[in-house]
Design a protein that fits this description.
64% of the residues lie in helices and 2% in strands. By secondary structure, the chain is mainly α. The protein has a two-stranded antiparallel sheet with strand order 1-2. Strand 1 (57-61) and strand 2 (65-69) form a beta hairpin.
Length: 418
C-alpha cells in the first residue's frame, strides 16, 4: 500500500485583539454579577442617546441663527419611535435596584451617600464649564440670547436627570421598608397633579411635583426588586399589560399626547413634567425589563457581547452627559458653514430623517473619541469621571467593595485595553 502523507493539523489562529480583550473582561467579571441588569442599563443608555440624536433638531433663521425644532412636529408618524427610544424609566429602575443592593452592604449611610453623590455630581462641572465658555463666546460674537439658548439647552439638558437621580438616591434608605407602597403613592401624586392641571383647569405649576414623583415610581420598583419582590413572571407580565393598557387609555380617551417625548410647540408634553401617561408607560417598561432580564443575562455569557455591554457601562454616565454636546457642537460647526442637511435644517420630511440617520455614525465616532478625552481630563482634575470604576470596587467573588457598592452597580472593574 502506498504511503499516505497526513498533513499536520494547522495551529489554531491566535486570538485577535478584540477576542483577547473580551477574554480579559470575562476573567475580570465577578461571579455574582447580575449581567442582565448591566444589559438593561446599557440598552437604556443606548435608547436615550439614539432618541436624543433623532429628535433634537435646529431650524435655521434669518441672520445665521437657529431655533429648536422637532421632527415629530412635522412627521407625527414617527411617534412610535418614542415608544422604543424613551427608556428613562428603565434607567431609574436599574438605578433603584443597584442603589438598594449597595446600601444593604454599605459601612454606613454617610459614607455611602457621599461616595454616590461624588460619582453623580462631580462630572457635571466639566460640561458646564465647556458650555459656559461656548455661550460666552457666542454672545461676544453677537449671537442673540434666544439662538444661544437653542444651541446650549439640549447639551446641558441631561443635568436635570442627574439632579432628580441624586435626590432619589439620597432617599433610598427611606424607600426600602415599603417600596411598593411608595411607588403606588407616587403614582397617586402624579394622578392628583394631572387632575388639577388637566381635569380641573388649575394652574400648571403643581405638575412640577411630578418631576420627582413620576420618576420615583420606577426607582421604587427597582428598590422593591432588590428587596426580593417582583420576582414572578406573572407579576411582570401583569405590569407590562396594565401599564400598556393604562397608557393607551390615557392617550385615546383622556387626550394625553401619544409621543413619550416632548414635541416642540405642543401644548402638553409627557416629559416636561412627567404625566400619568409616562408613568403608566414606565410601569410597562419595567414589566418588560423584568421579563427579559434573565434571557439577557444568559445572552451576556457570550464574551464579546458581554465586553460591549461592560464597556458601555464603564462610561455610561460620561456618554449620557456628553452625547448631546457632540450633537450640538456638530450643529454649531454646521451653522458656521451655512447649514448642512440633517443638522441645521428644518426637520420637515423624510429627506431630513434620511440625512439625520446618515449622521448617526458620525456622532457615534465623535462620542467614542470624546469619552477617553473626558476621562483623561477627569484624571487631570484629580478625580474619577462619571461611570469610571477604576477597577477597585468590585471583588472577584461578587462581594461589595470597600465603599459598599454592589457588583451590579456601575461598571465592572475591567482592565483597560492597554
Amino acid at each position: 500500500m502506498a504511503d499516505r502523507t497526513v498533513a499536520a493539523p494547522r495551529p489554531a489562529p491566535a486570538p485577535g485583539a478584540l477576542a483577547a480583550f473580551a477574554t480579559r473582561i470575562e476573567a475580570a467579571t465577578p461571579a455574582g454579577r447580575d449581567r442582565g441588569v448591566d444589559a438593561l442599563r446599557a440598552l437604556a443608555v443606548a435608547g436615550v442617546v439614539t432618541g436624543h440624536w433623532l429628535v433634537t433638531a435646529w431650524a435655521p433663521l434669518p441672520g445665521g441663527t437657529v431655533r429648536v425644532s422637532s421632527p415629530l412636529t412635522y412627521m407625527p408618524w414617527l411617534t412610535p419611535a418614542s415608544w422604543v427610544l424613551q427608556t428613562l424609566a428603565v434607567f431609574f429602575f436599574v438605578g433603584g435596584y443597584a442603589a438598594a443592593r449597595s446600601l444593604r452592604s454599605a459601612a454606613g449611610y454617610r459614607v455611602w451617600v457621599r461616595a454616590r453623590m461624588r460619582r453623580l455630581l462631580r462630572p457635571v462641572g466639566l460640561p458646564a464649564l465647556v458650555w459656559a465658555g461656548v455661550a460666552a463666546g457666542l454672545a461676544v460674537g453677537g449671537m442673540p440670547i434666544g439662538p444661544i439658548r437653542s444651541l446650549v439647552q439640549p447639551a446641558v439638558g441631561p443635568v436635570w436627570f442627574l439632579a432628580v437621580f441624586a435626590a432619589l438616591t439620597a432617599a433610598t434608605p427611606l424607600l426600602r421598608a415599603a417600596p411598593l407602597t411608595v411607588a403606588g403613592s407616587a403614582a397617586a401624586v402624579v394622578l392628583a397633579a394631572d387632575a388639577v392641571r388637566f381635569g380641573l383647569g388649575g394652574p400648571s405649576w403643581p405638575g412640577w411635583v411630578n418631576v420627582v414623583a413620576g420618576w420615583l415610581v420606577p426607582y421604587a420598583l427597582g428598590v422593591a426588586r432588590a428587596g426580593g419582590a417582583l420576582t414572578s413572571r406573572r407579576v411582570a407580565a401583569g405590569m407590562l399589560a396594565a401599564g400598556a393598557a393604562g397608557t393607551a387609555a390615557l392617550v385615546v380617551w383622556f387626550g394625553y399626547p401619544a409621543s413619550m417625548v416632548g414635541v416642540t410647540g405642543a401644548k402638553v408634553s409627557n416629559l416636561g413634567p412627567p404625566t400619568l401617561a409616562v408613568v403608566c408607560f414606565g410601569v410597562a417598561q419595567v414589566g418588560l425589563a423584568l421579563l427579559v432580564r434573565e434571557p439577557l443575562a444568559r445572552l451576556m455569557r457570550r464574551p464579546r457581547l458581554w465586553a460591549a455591554i461592560a464597556l458601555v457601562n464603564l462610561s455610561a454616565m460620561t456618554v449620557f452627559l456628553w452625547h448631546q454636546t457632540v450633537l450640538a457642537a456638530t450643529a454649531l460647526v454646521a451653522l458656521r458653514l451655512g447649514g448642512l442637511p440633517g443638522l441645521v435644517e428644518a426637520p420637515t420630511g423624510p429627506a431630513w430623517l434620511a440625512h439625520r440617520l446618515a449622521w448617526l455614525p458620525v456622532f457615534a465616532v465623535l462620542l467614542a473619541l470624546a469619552v477617553p478625552a473626558v476621562r483623561t481630563a477627569g484624571r487631570l482634575r484629580g478625580g474619577r469621571t462619571a461611570g469610571e470604576d477604576g477597577g477597585k470596587a468590585d471583588t472577584r467573588d461578587g462581594r461589595p467593595g470597600e465603599d459598599g457598592r454592589d457588583p451590579d452597580d456601575s461598571a465592572v472593574g475591567v482592565p483597560g485595553p492597554g
